[in-house]
Structure formats: C-alpha cells, structure tokens
Design brief:
Residues 222-319 form the HTH araC/xylS-type domain. This is HTH araC/xylS-type domain-containing protein. Pfam families: HTH_18 (PF12833). Keywords: DNA-binding, Transcription, Transcription regulation. This protein is an alpha+beta fold and 323 residues long. It folds into two domains: 3-207, Jelly Rolls (Sandwich), CATH 2.60.120.280; 214-321, Orthogonal Bundle (Arc Repressor Mutant, subunit A), CATH 1.10.10.60. It contains twelve helices and eleven strands. The strands form two sheets. A six-stranded antiparallel beta sheet has the order 2-3-10-5-8-11. Strands 1-4-9-6-7 form a five-stranded mixed beta sheet, with no helix packed on it. A hairpin with a 4-residue loop joins β6 and β7. α6 (218-230) crosses α7. The longest helix has 34 residues, at 180-213. It is globular.
Length: 323
C-alpha cells in the first residue's frame, strides 16, 4: 500500500452517498456525482480537473465493480493482492465474494473522467440473473495471483459500445429529473453495460479457445477483425478480406465463427451499427452516418438498423438527443 494512503479516510463505494462524500477532498467533490437508482446499485461518476491527486484506502462488502476510465490515470489494488494501473480507455472489472480492502490513487494532473458501477450480489442477480460465482467463473483465468482471495479482476479496453453506454449514462444522470423513470433508465443502462462486458468476456474466451484450436490462424483472424474495425466503411467481401490477411475464405469464415460466433458479414454489420450508434448520438445525420459506416444508401442503412435494433435510426437518435 502506498505510504500516502495510510492516513487517508477509508472509502466504501457502496456508502459514498450515505456519507455525503465524507473524507473526499474538496477539489474532487466538485467533480463527483452519485446515484442509487435501486437498492444495491451504486453509480459514481467523476468529471473534472481536480488539480491534485486523491489517494485513499478502500473497503467493500462482496460486490461486483466496473470502473470505466474515459480520461486520466489511476491505480487500484487489493490488499495483499493484485495491483492495476489504468490509463484512459481502460476499464477494471472486479468480482469479490468476500469483504475486501485495498487502495486507490486517482491522478488529478489532467482531466479526469470515470464511471464506476458497484453492485451488491443481490443487485447483480436482479439485473442479470447471475450470481457472483458466475461472474468469477468468467474471470477465473484473470486472477492475477489472488488465489488466496475470493476475488477476481481483469482489465478491459473501453470498446466503443462500452464508451457509448458510459457517456449515455452520465448524460441521463445530469439531464433527467429525479423520478422513477430516471431510476429505471439508469438501471437499464447499468444492465446494458454489464451485458456489453459479458459479451466482451465471451469473445475473449473465444480468443482463448482459438489459441488452443488454431494457433497458426489467430494472428491473421485478429488482423482481419482489426481491418473491419478500422475501415468498416469499405465494401469488404469475404474474398477481399481473406486475401488481405493471407487466409483462404473457408478458414477465414471458420475462424470468425470460432472467435466471434458469427460470420464475417455479421461481424462487419455489428461493427458498422456500433459506430452508427455513436455517430447518431453525437448528432450526425442519417445520411452522414450511413456514408461513414459503409452503407450503400440511407434507406439500406435504415432497414438494417431497424432490423437489428428494433427501431428506425431517426427514432433511436431522437431518444438519445432528447435526453
């Protein structure tokens, strides 16, 4: 534990709201918002330029915690366990089945933007139907030397879907009046964030299976997916993508099924729609979004969007921009 945390007040993420931010430095108080939309669901957002670091000890009952760092730097650690250093664009997922203690250091040297979701075991089951042991089973390969603790943790990239959810959640918190509808929306966004992370973890398990099954193809398959993500506006065909990464079409399709549980075309469509939601949420027009995401026309884009997301893009965008 860093020396500068030893005399700092102990903070419990589940009790920050009850303590009225007791022990939180004034420079950081101004950057923090708190919400408890339902019992056991605690949301903490930070957005500001504190100008000074904040180091503190942490303590928590059994819980699932997801910290999404959009800007800034931080450190977090379990007492006598693993330590993590996070930068902008990284998220820390922790699942603990016992009381835990640790420490955190948040950097105030530059802009700092963080969203933390803290769920009790009961709240986790209510939102997802999963118990803490189920979550730990997904993270079992990421224990980071904490086999003496009933806790697992892993660092994830803040992929575009998770970033969008975090931004939308913060927007809903600040724009909506306190009411049952706001609580329901915040709970829904929390569940959506967990679903996105669970999907990511499942894909990572696919990576692990692929490493065992077809290790020679893995670099080419990851390269193929990276090409789709970086240039989804291009008219990719299976043949063109296979040629670009040096695989035949059959092995490329089989690899995508093993890695992402979908075909190349389905993966490209998912990437395009993920980008489309981000662009629409930022205020881009349907025509601009369709072009930037590689759809041949706005009408084709609207048809695909409606089929996959259950509503036309104009209706979806109106709901986002009106929050």
């Amino acid at each position: 534990m860093p020396m500068h945390t030893r005399n700092a007040p102990v903070q419990d993420p589940a009790r920050l709201m009850d303590s009225a931010l007791g022990g939180v430095p004034q420079a950081w108080r101004q950057a923090i918002w708190l919400e408890r939309p339902n019992e056991g669901i605690n949301l903490c957002g930070m957005n500001g330029l504190p100008g000074e670091d904040w180091a503190f000890e942490s303590a928590s009952a059994p819980a699932l915690a997801l910290s999404i760092l959009l800007e800034g730097q931080m450190e977090a650690a379990f007492e006598d366990g693993a330590a993590f250093g996070l930068g902008a664009g990284q998220a820390l997922l922790m699942a603990a089945g016992q009381h835990t203690r640790g420490w955190n250091v948040l950097s105030g040297a530059g802009p700092f933007r963080l969203l933390n979701l803290h769920l009790s075991p009961q709240a986790l089951r209510g939102l997802t139907g999963m118990g803490m042991q189920d979550m730990q089973a997904l993270l079992r390969q990421a224990r980071h030397g904490m086999r003496h603790l009933d806790a697992c943790a892993t660092v994830l990239p803040v992929f575009s879907q998770l970033q969008r959810i975090a931004v939308e959640l913060a927007r809903q918190q600040s724009c909506l009046p306190d009411c049952k509808a706001k609580s329901a929306l915040l709970c829904a966004k929390a569940a959506e964030a967990l679903a996105a992370v669970l999907q990511h973890c499942s894909i990572e398990q696919g990576h692990a299976q692929l490493r065992r099954a077809v290790p020679a193809d893995r670099p080419r398959l990851l390269r193929a997916n990276a090409l789709l993500e970086s240039a989804c506006e291009q008219p990719w065909s299976v043949a063109a993508l296979a040629q670009a990464v040096g695989l035949n079409e059959k092995r490329l399709q089989a690899g995508f099924q093993a890695l992402y549980a979908c075909s190349v075309h389905e993966r490209l469509t998912a990437i395009r729609l993920d980008l489309a939601q981000n662009l629409l949420a930022q205020g881009h027009s349907i025509a601009q979004t369709a072009q930037r995401c590689g759809f041949g026309s706005a009408s084709h884009f609207s048809k695909v969007f409606s089929r996959q997301l259950g509503m036309p893009p104009r209706q979806w965008a109106s709901g986002q921009l009106g929050q």
